[in-house]
Amino acid sequence: MAGFQFAHMQNFSRKGDKGGRTVSFVLAEARRDPAASLHVSSPRPPDVVWGCSVEDLEREHDDRVAVARKTIAGGKTRSVGKEQHTLRTIVVSHPYTVEEVEADPQKRQEVERWEALNVDWARKELGDDLRTVVRHTDERRWHLHIYGLPGDPEMRASASHPGQVARAAVLAAASVEGEDEKALRQRSDRAYKTAMRNWQDSYFLAVGMPAGLTRLGPAKRRLSRAEWHQERQQAQALKAAQEEAAALKVKADAFARQVAEKAASIRADAVRRADAAKAAEKQALKREEAARRAISQAERDTRAARRLRGLGGAIRALWDGLRKSLIVARLREELRPTVERWRQAEASARAAASAEAELRAKAEKRLSALSVSAAELGAQRDELRARLALYEPAAVVAPVPARSQP
Questions:
Q1: What is residue 337's predicted lDDT score, i.e. its pLDDT?
Q2: How far apart are CA 239 and CA 250, in angstroms?
Q3: What is the span of the domain harbouring residue 182?
Q4: What is residue 4's DSSP assignment?
Q5: Where does residue 317 rank: exposed (0-12), middle (13-18), buried (19+ CB within 10 A)?
Q6: Residue at 342 is within a domain
Q7: What is the spatial distance between Cα 245 and Cα 191, in angstroms, rounded to a whole number?
Q8: Whose CA is closest to 6, among 200, 222, 235?
Q9: CB 189 within 8 A of CB 167
Q10: How many CB atoms lie within 10 A of CB 341?
Q11: Is residue 350 part of a domain?
């Protein structure tokens, strides 16, 4: 059963710390160079869990340090000093030994989950500074090394170290009343420890607790062995509950995906139906438009037929008129001798009346006889005039003036 967590953060410079560990030495140790691996009985090359190789990490570090510049008074810049921390490191260790993990598939599965939790946490903790995560299996405990390079142009690793940031903030602020240099240092140290405890707590919540580890071991909290075992059992129970919750979440996510897929299928079917309805509506509109065009064409054809029918009537009327005109002309020709004789007779009668009174009676008698014939012609003439009145001005025949008494 797993024990308590271990996580340690430390930054390094090219000059090195009090123990002489420089950036170059730390990375040589990570690579398992012989000169830097004297503490390991049988060194093995590291396994890259995430990111680049240790060699690539060192090359990038050296290239960036060579061009990094630090701004000083007056706006001038200078190269970054060797004492400045330029490499970020975090070591995390699991309670299981390498021997236990390699011998027990269940424990290997547990540390694999623990490693995945560490990678996720490191990517959030270091952000773009994270470069690589490596595993060493040539030491007793199963552990990981996490390396990062500061992202700012001056490569200040201390700017991302929570404890160093808290300490620097206290030292940069004004001293409280009655506080000497020693008290200020003590207060800055307390700020450092508080920030690091908070950091450890955040790591426990993100990695230790989901992995079934306890926050601290029994010695630091003066717990009895039984009490600490009970706490480990609680941690394992919490882990099991989290794993069950995770499994339920997987099932819930799968169900949600099924529902989403079903909903997507329903939406897609609705879209297809809507598209089909739109297509049908469009086709109906086309047919309606075709029907309107057909009706419009029929109306035009009807009007044309009516015009043709009217033209035919006009042609027939013209033809009938021509026929009627020919009849009138023929009647005129036929009546002309008779009318002429009538006129001549009237003229003779007038002449005779003026010359001989005694011939008046004879002339009237003759005129009466002619009037009988004229009556017959008059009827025909009146009919002709009625017909001619529709097509041309009627022929006017001067009436015969009444003869005056001598």
A1: 79
A2: 16
A3: 6-216
A4: B
A5: exposed
A6: no
A7: 37
A8: 200
A9: yes
A10: 12
A11: no
Helix, strand, or coil (residue 359): helix
Q: Please give the backbone phi and psi of residue 42, each rounded to the nearest 5 degrees, phi first.
A: -135, 80
In a domain? residue 369: no
What do you get for the CA distance between the two ends of the chain, in Å?
A: 173
Beta bridge partners of 70: 78
Contact 221, 10 (CB under 8 A): no
Residue 167: both structure tokens together: 């300490």
pLDDT of 247 strictly over 50: yes
Structure-token match 């006129």, residue found: 343
pLDDT at 3: 60
Please indicate, yes or no, if residue 116 is contained in any of the structural domains: yes
3-state secondary structure of 380: helix
Q: What share of the chain is helix, strand, coil (3-state, %, to 5)?
A: 65, 10, 20
> What pLDDT score was predicted for residue 379?
74
Residue pair 350/404 in contact (Cβ under 8 Å)? The answer is no
Element (H, E) at 135: strand 130-136
Distance from C-alpha of 207 to C-alpha of 118, rounded to nearest angstrom: 6
pLDDT at 325 over 80: no
CA distances from 222 to 218, 228, 234 (A): 6, 9, 18
How many domains is the chain partitioned into structurally? Answer: 1
Picking from 61, 79, 57, the residue whose alpha carbon sits closest to that of residue 70 is 79
Residue 63's domain is classified under what CATH number?
3.30.930
